[in-house]
Every structure is written in C-alpha cells, then in structure tokens.
Target: Tetraspanin 13
Amino acid sequence: MVCGGFACSKNCLCALNLLYTLVSLLLIGIAAWGIGFGLISSLRVVGVVIAVGIFLFLIALVGLIGAVKHHQVLLFFYMIILLVVFIVQFSVSCACLALNQEQQGQLLEVGWNSTASARNDIQRNLNCCGFRNFNPNDTCLASCFKSGHPCSPCAPIIGEYAGEVLRFVGGIGLFFSFTEILGVWLTYRYRNQKDPRANPSAFL
Model:
C-alpha cells in the first residue's frame, strides 16, 4: 500500500530526521574520539566536522519539531534549507566522483600546504615526511625521522587512499543527497495535508 496518508507522511518525516540526528551525533562523536586518542590535532579539521554535525543536528531538530506539531512555518524553512543543502551536497559529491588522479594530486597538495597541524598529523600517522620531497632542515613528527632512518614522501602514500576516500565520500554524499530530496518532497506533501484530528469532517 502506498504511503499517502497524513500519519504515514508524518512518521516517515520523523524517521528521516531521527536518522539525521544519529548521523550528526556520530560526526560529533568521531571528532571527539579523534581528539581524545590524539589522531587529530588540527582544530580547523575538528571544528569543521563538529560544525557540520551541529548544523545537521539543528536541521533535524527543526524538521522533527515541525513534523510532530505540523508547524507550517518550521516545515517551510526546513524544506528550503534542505533543498539548499541538497544542491550543495549533490554538487560536491559529483565533483568528488569526477576528479581524476592529476586533479586529486593538486587538491591534496593545496590541502597539504594550507594547514600545518593537519600536515603534522599525516606525517606522524603515516610515518612519512614532506609531500613530494623533504628538506632535512625542516621538522617532521614521523618516527622514521626521529630515529634517523630515511623517510619516504607522503604524496604516494596519500595517493593510494585518496581515490578510495573520494569515491567513498562521493557515494555517501550522493546517498544522503537523495534522502534530502526525499525529505523535501515529504515535507512539501505533508504541509499540504490536513490533520484529521484537527478537522475530522474534512475527510467525510
């Protein structure tokens, strides 16, 4: 039976926003776990992940309250925000899937040069020094450098995982972008449905 009733639309919208709430809490938890275990020391990276998690949590909260109370204004703003997020996320996901190896290398080099703390994390965790080459006069947190052994550059090591990570991120982004457009459609339909408890005679 097709889900077309008021209660079914409400339950689907609530379930979708509960999923977004769980994802947002997972993002915040992963960021806290990375800091707690010393895997990430870059405040910029952690800040971005936490900000995305909080933003997603707030969107889910607005959608959940709007769905439970059938609040027209909240549902309208939720629908608009979700549509904007869908457009941005769908574009970024397609870009991640469309990058070739040369573009991936350029993107990684830009990220490598943009923040020192993330660069130190990569060198320490992957046991490498420098992106394509390393100046011995520079500092490196890799164990190979501290022990005096020759260190390999980080670009080939990162490049092995970059394609898989980008495809994974692009695929996850596409999946959630389609759930967002589903949320926009559910919200639009739910806003235009009448609550049978408020006016039962409208369905007689």
